[in-house]
Amino acid sequence: MSRNLSRTLGELSRSGYRPVPVKEELRRNAIAALKSGEILFPGIVGYEKTVAPQLVNAILARHDFILLGLRGQAKTRILRSLVRFLDEAVPAIEGSPLNEDPLHPVTAESKRLVQEAGDDLPIRWLTREERYQEKLATPDVTMADLIGDIDPVKAANKRLSFGDPEVIHYGVIPRTNRGIFAINEVPDLAPRIQVGLLNILEEGDVQIRGFPIRIPLDILMVFSANPEDYTNRGNLITPLKDRIESQIKTHYPRTLEEAMAITAQEAYVERDGVTVAVPPVLRELVEEMGIEARKSEYVDQSSGVSARVTISALENLVSNAERRAHKTGETRVVPRFADLGNVLPALTGKIELVYEGELEGTSNVARHIIGKAVKSVFTRRFPEAKRMDADRDRDDTPFQSIIDWFSSGKTLELTDELPEETYRASLKVVSGLADLARRLEPNDDEELATSMELVLEGLVQYSMIAREDLDTGHASYRDVLGEMMEQLEEER
Q1: Are residues 261 and 209 located together in one domain of the fold?
Q2: Do 74 and 219 lie in a common domain?
Q3: Which of 220, 249, 278 corresponds to the end of one domain?
Q4: 3-state secondary structure string, the chain?
Q5: What is the pLDDT of residue 163?
Q6: Same domain, yes or no, for 273 and 178?
């Protein structure tokens, strides 16, 4: 647009520019996006029919709003994505700390500059990104940080009294005038600081250190909070809750497919120099870890299980396969179930445990979650496995030849450092294992080995065969009875 070339107030006035309040600007651009059919929140998966419509409604209603959800539910990403509904650029008075509109200055200093310079007043153009600011709420945040305070250095340099409005040093909220200001984890703000936000939300102005002037702000205020803090701990004062016009609840992925799409979008899996081909069954298994963790009685569900758990788990899985490739000299490698032992750090560092979980130990809880995830994936692909729980004496299951192979006293050892050919050859030794796995991968020899491992791990979860972890990434599969006998011998 021609007005983007304006560099002075006179040029801007002649360009036909008319200022629009920021909430109206957001509303206008959101309507345009709705009419064009474009994706409103790119990169936000799983909220298309739940959170996204409520966000748009809040924008259309010109509401300040709060996102209420557990950790890892894309709250901050959503707030940052709001900048796409701002204009590409808007003019502001050059040097104004409050990004004041050249046609409507609000401070005494800017009004004086406009009067003195007239049409020659220099202006600058604010980009979308410059018009968004955010603050992580912590107990040590002060009113001066958010709203402002008297600046004695400015008073001394300009030889002004402390009663002059020009000695004010503005905080981050006034400096976001004509933009979007976000406060993450707002209940962590001290109550007296929350009180300072009331006038901004209700009247759209700020008052600093009792000055008898009020500075009108054109701003969209948005917030995020954890439900536990917002409701149970009562750290958000009631008047502030009342002034936040819309409360929008976020959630974890509702389906396995949505969860997999989020992880695939966010995880770093494309590695330089090595092709790491992750089989679909392992991608599915990683997501099941998150699902099982959100159901586990050992995990504190009020804290939530972030989507970052599965993202980190997939990255660790890929990294262990990459490490193997560099050691064996292979240029293409497929992650294995044997790599899962190196996924534990992604879980143990990100899940909060209840008292019973603390007694079990973080690593044991993480292994329990992985085991439950394996069982879910295995049963989904081999539904007849449920019969083994119903009648353990049946000998007509499709897994019987595998169970018999181990019952004959044979064992199978797998490690995460075996070269691909050795690894596949080791699995094919087990009678009937390859034939059964071909039900899942009839034509893909590369992923066949992963499916064979799935069968073994599934039988372990149903206690039809035993697995002993000899070391991280090194497991020995054997007959359950033989394992029990060895344990009895050790106890004696």
Answers
A1: no
A2: yes
A3: 249
A4: CHHHHCCEHHHHHHCCCCCCCHHHHHHHHHHHHHHHCCCCCCCCCCCCCCHHHHHHHHHHCCCCEEEECCCCCCHHHHHHHHHHHCCCEEEEECCCCCCCECCECCCHHHHHHHHHHHHHCEEEEEECHHHEEEEECCCCCCHHHHCEEECHHHHHHHCCCCCCHHHEEECCCHHHCCEEEEEECHHHCCHHHHHCCHHHHHCCEECCCCCCCCEECCEEEEEEECHHHHHHCCCCCHHHHHHCCEEEECCCCCCHHHHHHHHHHHCCCCCCCCEECCCHHHHHHHHHHHHHHCCCCCECCCCCCCCHHHHHHHHHHHHHHHHHHHHHCCCEECCCHHHHHHHHHHHHCCCCECHHHHHHCHHHHHHHHHHHHHHHHHHHHCHHHHHHHHCCCCCCCCCHHHHHHHHCCCCEEEECCCCHHHHHHHHHCCCCHHHHHCCCCCCCHHHHHHHHHHHHHHHHHCCCCEEEEEECCEEEEECHHHHHHHHHHHHC
A5: 56
A6: no
pLDDT for 298 equals 95
Residue 310's closest CA among 292, 333, 334, 335?
292
**Distance of CA 50 to CAs 31, 35, 294, 485, Å?**
19, 20, 20, 54
Query: What pLDDT, on the 0 to 100 scale, is given for residue 155?
Result: 58
**Residue 221 sits in the same domain as residue 339:** no
Please check whether residues 139 and 239 belong to one and the same domain.
Answer: yes
pLDDT value of residue 2: 40
| Statement to judge: residues 155 and 289 lie in one domain | no
Number of domains in the chain: 2
Round to whole Å and give the CA distance between 232 and 327.
52
Q: Which residue has the tokens 């490690």?
A: 415
Domain that holds residue 184: 2-249
pTM of the shown model: 0.86
What pLDDT was estimated at residue 411?
A: 93
436 in the same domain as 402: yes
Which of 249, 274, 309 terminates a domain? The answer is 249
Mean pLDDT by 10 residues, the chain (492 residues): 70 90 97 95 93 97 95 94 95 92 89 91 94 91 82 62 65 92 91 85 71 79 82 70 93 94 95 93 95 94 90 96 94 92 90 91 94 95 77 70 92 91 92 90 80 94 89 88 59 54
165 and 300 in a common domain: no
Measured in residues, the chain has a length of 492
